[in-house]
Structures are given as structure tokens and as C-alpha cells.
Amino acid sequence: MTDKQIRNSTAEFLIFTQQNGAENITVRYEDNEIWLTQKLIAQLFDVSIPTINEHLKHIFESGELEEMSVIRNFLITAADGKNYRTKHYNLDAVISIGYRVNSVRATQFRQWATKVLRDFAQKGYVIDRQRMENGTFLNEDYFEQLLAEIREIWLSERRS
Question: How far separated are the first and last CA of the chain, in Å rounded?
Fold first, then answer.
């Protein structure tokens, strides 16, 4: 799903290519979190920005997510060269929206998410082999942290 990773002094940006060959969506990756604007979420699920706004409103009103925990403002340079503070929404918000939106892309997202959850429920783990092989989305300590968790599980099984 990921084309390449670009590093930058302020943030990391990841470029996602849609499965159907639609335009790329560039998201912000900062502090081990993915951040998208409403415009990008609308592009991702192939719906209008007002649709995304309406779903976010209901998500916050219902208490599914707390607004302050999933929103962060980032400076964006617009076409006019000026910087504007723009709300970005984290992956929790994107996932919640993906389960509410009615579009072909949202359905594809739900099918993918269901497969991942099913694999996790059946096996107790999920591995994104392509991401691990390419090193995409992984911080410098990722493999050390993963190995430490595996060792801890292995040792706890030996004690039983």
C-alpha cells in the first residue's frame, strides 16, 4: 500500500497509492501517528468533505472518540504561500469514519479491517510482511521492541 517514505526535519510524510490507481494521498506521520485533514479523509473514502464533517460530529457527540484526543493542528502552506493552522485527525478518527461512510472505498477499507481483525482473533497476531520488509512506518527501535516482546512471551510460556 505504501510507495515510499520521505523524511523531513519537522515531520514524516507517507504516500499511499489507492488500489484502483486513483491519485496518491499524502498523509502526515509525526510522533508515531498518522494525521489527515478532512479533505484527505474525504479523498481516501471517495466522499465529500461535508460528509466527513458530519460523521466526525456524530462520532464526537456519541462519545465514541474525544475530540481533543484525535485532533491536532499543523501549519500548512497553501497555494498562496501563506501558512494556515489546519486541523488534522489521527488514525483512530479515520478508522471510525471508515466504519460509518457509505462508499466503495469505505467498503474496501472495512473488508481489509475485517480480515486483519479475523487474522488477529484466530492467530493472536498480525504481521504486515511487506511493511516489515520495506521498513515502512517503522521507527529505529521497531525490530528490537518486537524481539523483546517475543522473548518475553517465549519466557512466560517456558515458566508455565
Answer: 40
CA dist., res. 90 & res. 33, Å (int): 7
Which residue type is seen at 13? F
Q: What is the CATH number of domain 2-126?
A: 3.10.260
Strand order across the beta sheet in which 33-36 lies = 2-7, 12-16, 25-30, 33-36, 83-90, 71-77
User: Is residue 12 a contact partner of residue 29, using CB atoms and an 8 Å limit?
Assistant: yes
Mapping DSSP to helix (H, G, I), strand (E, B) and coil, where does residue 30 land?
Answer: strand
* Cβ contact 13:28 at 8 Å: yes
Task: State the DSSP H helix or E strand holding residue 71, giving kind and residue range, or none if neither.
Answer: strand 71-77
Q: What is the pTM of this model?
A: 0.76
What per-residue string of b and e applies to 92-108 under the rule 16 or more CB within 10 Å gives b?
A: bbbebbbebbeeebbeb
- Residues linked to residue 123 through DSSP beta bridges, in sequence order: none
Q: What pLDDT shows up at residue 146? A: 85
Task: Grade residue 128 by pLDDT with cuts at 50, 70 and 90.
Answer: confident
